[in-house]
Amino acid sequence: MMDAHLSTPTQPILNADPKDPKHRILDAAERLFTERGIGATSLRAITGAAGMNPAAIHYHYGSKDALVLAVARRRIDPVNRHRLQTLEKLEAEARGAAVELEDLVEAFLAPQLFTVSARFGAIVHHESLEIVGQIVPELFGEVHDRFMAALTLALPELSPPVLETRFRFAVGVMLHVLRGFAGIPMGEAAFQPPSSSDEAMLQQMVTFLAAGLRAPAAPEETRR
Question: What pLDDT, in 10s, does the model give residues 147-166?
Answer without folding.
Answer: 999 999 999 999 999 999 99
